[in-house]
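Sharing a chain and its predicted structure for anyone who wants a worked example. Both blocks are below, sequence first, tokens second.
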Amino acid sequence: MIENEFGSTDTVNEIRDRLLTWFAKHQRPFPWRTTYRPYHVWIAEVMAQQTQMERVVLYFQRWVEQFPDVEAVASAPEQKILKAWEGLGYYTRARNIHRTALYLVSSRGGEIPSDYQQLLALPGIGPYTAAAILSIAFNQPYPLIDANVERIFSRLADIDSPLKNAATRKQLTTMAGTLLDREHPRDFNQALMELGALVCTPKKPVCADCPLRMQCRAHRADTVEFRPLPTARGKKIDIVMACCILHKDDRIFIQQRLPDDIWGSLWEFPGGRLKEGESPVEGALREIREETGWQIKQLNFLATVTHFYTRYRVTLHGFHGILHPSCPKPVLTAASQYAWVTLSQLSQYPFPAGHRQLVDILCA
């Protein structure tokens, strides 16, 4: 592989040296880089999935203030964990952190394992996260390939094939193993990802600042802007929903989603997806009836918000209505429990993104 891709061992060593020298000068001061505690690296890596690093830093700092170690995570109730995660999305990640912490405390004295197979056995830790923890926290020689590294390798070797091809995947894996600096795996892997985030960016890469431009085949061939080959993007699927904020006296009705549901165990206002030909207000009235048994005659429009979830673009129409003080208890069909809360108490509960936007609008 060295001969095929880079010409010589000297070229590989030069790539490593240049990259490590660049990283020493330009690495961002992320809080988990001060000590590289395994717990910190684990949390940061899980947060970084599907999340921009600027947001990760903010959430990470708040998280470790609330949960300074594995024991603190294990001893916290799930609702507190979900509330701390609110806004990051993909809440299964937070639940898996909680499950893993409970196991680590009960079976390993709170210690995060430094073995690949033991890490893979933990909830929510797959091959990439396991390798990242071992490489970054324990400085073990495991190569890492994320989207930034894929982009760098596709340009470095001027790969003229889609990244999802089986042959291309094999080539990227081989490149990662070949280039990995086994004496400094922690810094080398972070340097690659940092280079992709700051210099070898998807659009308008700053090749003049790249420490690897002399070794980059795409730079020499003037094909950087065409690497990696673009892949066909799936169209966003539109979902239209409606919900209602129901008031009784000075209280607001909220209900908790079923544990195995999407956004399970988060809180919400009664509502759901509109049926074909149904107006938002008709859908909200129907959902209230189906989910609580209440018959509401009139709703007032509050706001329409939009949020994105994987391939979905969700438009949520929010209404508010008044319940008679003598209304019966709700008959829940889509929730595990309910609560009557004041406006100020809403901030204590974790909500999905769309409902959280309505809470913010209501409070404002």
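Comments welcome. The chain has two domains: 2-226, 237-363.
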